[in-house]
Design brief:
With 573 residues, this protein is α/β, with parallel strands linked by helices. It contains 20 helices and 13 strands. Strand 4 (204-205) and strand 5 (209-210) form a beta hairpin.
């Protein structure tokens, strides 16, 4: 653990990024015209990591104008279809890597979503795949690059999880999940940003600065897998890996209009990641994929689980991936319109209406109004057990370097108490009691024919992506970490300036509700922001959520293209 002043360590982190960027430029085809365009791009990367640059208002628009059409022809393609092209040798692995690396370089300047490029390793891996095509072409993910959250160990790189003191923690191994994916023909090509402490719905740190939203830079990218949300939201990665202990996959996926899966604990590897509070097993983080393609999310899950990761990681359970090509004849789906503490803002409420209306029109779907259950208890429990040590483990990471604690970190750890052993036991018992009571509530929706509730659809967050440093409510996401329920977030619509007007004469339910009501001052403030919803199931029903996600995808279509599904990049309304 380093003890140098954080400002000096931040310079080291910046140099690591810049050096990797220079190496990345060597493998891509930036002609003089593209170089000039790149140099003139508005940048979300400042002179220092305390300077947040001067990003474009709507990064995606500039991204589409800048990335060459030859690159977009590859990166816009649905990753599953691109995989078919790779397997049939219509395109080489090196060509695909060069295209995605080009896109990622441009995406990074516009949004500050990458902490480090991996050009040498990824180029050698792609080249080897091309040279060994006949023996490798049948690998399930042959030739696809993917992005990884900075906290995921990769050989030869420092893993800081947002704390500069760990810049010297250079690991000599790959995380199990990286090894599994590489054996399946995929390979990491960039490492993406995550925030100080990881426990925030923002993505800002003294290691990289601030990551801005892909669609509106006034808004947050979400956290803690913020870089993943943005890079995949820009279509500059086929898929990425994030982690989730309170919403850290779902929130960034939702704020950037893509799919993200909070998996059930024990289905895919996570045990060898780094974070604060290592050793605590009260609420465990899970891994999950993020992608603009639901089919890609499913293929990644199937590939990892088919590799039998439980033979590598003893914390996993042996549950085969179920075939989603044969869905149930009927689904019973609940709609949770509010948790009773903070009501959703107009665009989120409209998204719920869209989903409910579409599903009600289907003969194989029964839609039920679902009521919240004792949501106040969720935060009472989690406020005690998220930081059982009173946040001392995290605070020690900034103690010697003088690294200031950021606003959102302060909000997350406020009130944390160092629990005694017996206090920990007590709150763990409260957790287990809540899980049993909640399951009983869920099962109370079983009908007279004995048909259970298959899933509920609910907000991911009370609002679309909020302004920076204003993400201050976890209940819609962290409830399912407490319960260990899988959640798939799905894009539903985009903020509509004519439809999503603020409510008049509104009477807030609570102080936090009033905070969010005042935050949503005008749909113009949230222009172009995507609106996603959660599809939530009982433990180990991850596959069923993808089945329901496919139904929503078919009925709603591509939210960025009102004329229907398309492989073209969104132009946004």
């Amino acid at each position: 653990m380093l003890k140098d002043n954080y400002k000096e360590l931040a310079k080291i982190a910046q140099k690591t990024y810049n050096d990797s960027l220079e190496e990345a430029f060597k493998i891509v085809n930036f002609n003089e015209e593209l170089k000039a365009e790149y140099e003139n791009l508005p940048s979300a990367i400042g002179e220092t990591t305390e300077d947040y640059g001067n990003p474009a208002k709507h990064p995606f628009e500039i991204y589409l104008q800048t990335v060459p059409s030859s690159v977009l022809a590859i990166t816009e393609r649905d990753p599953v279809n691109l995989l078919a092209d790779l397997k049939s040798k219509k395109i080489s692995c090196v060509e695909v890597l060069k295209a995605y690396m080009t896109a990622a370089i441009i995406a990074s300047k516009l949004t500050n979503c990458i902490v480090e490029f991996l050009p040498k390793e990824s180029f050698e891996f792609a080249k080897s795949l091309d040279e060994n095509y006949e023996s490798k072409k049948d690998l399930p993910l042959y030739g696809l690059p993917f992005s990884i959250k900075e906290m995921i160990p990769i050989k030869g790189r420092s893993i800081t999880h947002g704390s500069l003191c760990y810049l010297d923690r250079i690991v000599d191994y790959n995380a199990d999940i990286i090894n599994i994916l590489q054996k399946s023909g995929a390979y990491p090509f960039v490492r993406t940003t995550n925030p100080q402490s990881l426990m925030m719905l923002e993505c800002v740190s003294y290691q990289h600065g601030r990551t801005v939203n892909a669609f509106n830079s006034d808004l947050t990218s979400g956290g803690s897998s913020g870089g993943e949300g943005v890079l995949n939201g820009l279509y500059a990665s086929p898929f990425g890996l994030g982690s989730d202990i309170g919403g850290s996959i779902r929130i960034p996926a939702a704020f950037n209009g893509i799919y993200g899966l909070r998996t059930t604990l024990g289905r895919i590897p996570t045990a060898d990641y780094f974070s604060c509070n290592l050793g605590s097993t009260t609420i465990l983080s899970v891994t999950g994929p993020l992608s603009r393609s639901l089919s890609m999310v499913e293929l990644v899950m199937k590939t990892i689980i088919d590799s039998k990761p439980e033979l590598i990681d003893p914390s996993l359970t042996s549950i085969p991936w179920k075939d989603t090509a044969k869905p149930q004849k009927k689904y019973r789906i609940g709609i949770l319109k509010s948790d009773g503490i903070v009501n959703p803002t107009p665009p989120v409420s409209r998204a719920l209406e869209i989903a409910e209306t579409k599903l009600k029109d289907l003969p194989n779907i029964e839609v039920i109004e679902y009521k919240p259950f004792n949501q106040e208890k969720v935060m009472e429990i989690l406020s005690k057990i998220y930081f059982e040590d009173g946040a001392q483990d995290f605070l020690n990471t900034v103690k010697e370097t003088g690294e200031p604690i950021l606003t959102q970190t302060t909000w997350a750890i406020d009130g944390a108490k160092d629990l005694t052993m017996h206090e920990q036991w007590y709150w763990n018992l409260e957790k287990e009691k809540f899980r049993k009571d909640y399951l009983k509530h869920w099962m109370s929706y079983t009908n007279s024919d004995g048909e259970n509730l298959d899933a509920i659809i609910a907000p991911v967050y009370p609002n679309v992506a909020p302004r920076h440093e204003q993400g201050q409510y976890w209940n819609y996401s962290c409830t399912y970490n407490l319960l260990d329920y899988p959640v798939l977030v799905c894009p539903i619509t985009i903020v509509d300036e004519s439809k999503d007007l603020p409510l008049k004469n509104y009477k807030p339910l609570s102080e936090m509700d009033e905070f969010h009501y005042k935050q949503y001052d005008s749909p113009a403030s949230f222009k172009k922001a995507p609106v996603n919803l959660s599809v939530i199931g009982l433990r180990n029903t991850d596959e069923k959520l993808i089945e329901i996600g496919k139904i929503l995808e078919k009925e709603i279509g591509d939210i960025f293209n009102p004329n229907g599904k398309s492989e073209n990049c969104p132009t946004n309304n």
